[in-house]
Amino acid sequence: MSTRIAFLKGHGTENDFVIVPDPENVIDLSPAAVAALCDRRAGIGGDGVLHVVRSAAHPEAEDMAAEAEWFMDYRNGDGSVAEMCGNGVRVFARYLQRAGHVAEGDVAVATRGGVKTVHIAKDGDITVGMGKALLPEGEVTVRVGEHSWPARNVNMGNPHAVAFVADLAHAGDLLSPPSYSPASAYPDGVNVEFVVDRGPGHVAMRVHERGSGETRSCGTGACAVAVATARRDGADPAVTGTPVTCTVDLPGGTLVITERPDGEIEMTGPAVIVAEGEIDAEWLADAARRRA
Ligand SMILES: N[C@@H](CCC[C@H](N)C(=O)O)C(=O)O
């Protein structure tokens, strides 16, 4: 009988993930294996993989082990590695709670973007301290078909280009990545957000994610959008001393983002585990071989 690999499936505002618990980091999750798992027809399907590893067992996280027992080894659906995933870290915490590794309240999670504090509330929502946004200087232009827009460069640990548009439909089908210039603004590629206003402190967005394509939600993207919207409107909590909150509607749900006067950003939203099962390890190895 072939070996089985346990998995779960979960999502945060429909940004969906294959969760692979692997405390001792023994599963060979090559980029091709990740892409095979995320394949929506031939695999389980997901925007990315949340590889759940003890920090002490992962070379990229062992230096965070004293602060955070668990490391979110996040991968995009194409197998590429990303620094941070805001929806992913909420779903990751939900998995830890369901598995009995943590209880309600605060839990520290190691990520490639540093240790994040996640709060699991009684009411079911999960809040994550996303850290501070960086706003690199310089003009960026984003293009889709005949449309082009100036975009704000926002770094949430991972790179974002935020474009305010007249109509979300102008972003087209987003089946291929929007182009951008200058290329030097994003040497490692970029997540692109398209934003329209819905009212004071309230926007709606679509996103094309680096390594995953158009997704139904992006947590780091929603934070980037909240900060870009505040600055566009002349609001900066560091200057006024007053927190700024933005409600961000995405195709898959709503996220609430607050930027505090110290620059720290908190994001609140749902995180759900929808299924669990077992993967045939032989199938995964074969599927990965065929893609490699
Ligand atoms: N969906 C995520 C972001 C995942 C990483 C991104 N695609 C990248 O490559 O930077 C989120 O919720 O933040």
CATH architectural arrangement of the largest domain: Roll
CATH class of the largest domain: Alpha Beta
Beta strand count: 18
Kindly report the CATH topology of the largest domain: Diaminopimelate Epimerase, Chain A, domain 1
Largest sheet, in brief, is:
18 strands, mixed
Q: What is the overall shape?
A: globular
Multimeric status of the protein: single chain
Level of helix content? 10-25%
CA-CA gap between termini: 25 Å
Given the helix and strand composition, which structural class is it?
A: alpha+beta
Number of helices: 5
The distinct bound ligands, ions and cofactors come out as: ligand LBFN2T5F
What percent strand?
A: 35-45%
CATH homolog superfamily of the largest domain: Diaminopimelate Epimerase, Chain A, domain 1
The residue ranges in which pLDDT falls below 50 over 5 or more consecutive positions are none
Rounded average pLDDT: 97
Order of helices and strands: EEHEEHEEEEEEEEEEHHEEEEH
Number of domains: 2
Rg, Cα atoms, Å: 19 Å
Describe the overall structure:
By secondary structure, the chain is of the alpha+beta class. The chain folds into two domains: 4-125 and 272-291, Diaminopimelate Epimerase, Chain A, domain 1 (Roll), CATH 3.10.310.10; 140-269, Roll (Diaminopimelate Epimerase, Chain A, domain 1), CATH 3.10.310. Helix content is 17%, strand content 41%. It has an 18-stranded mixed beta sheet that branches. A hairpin with a 3-residue loop joins strand 9 (147-155) and strand 10. Helix 1 (31-38) crosses helix 5 (281-291). The radius of gyration is 19 Å and the shape is globular. The protein starts with a strand and ends with a helix. Ligand LBFN2T5F binds next to helix 2 and helix 3.
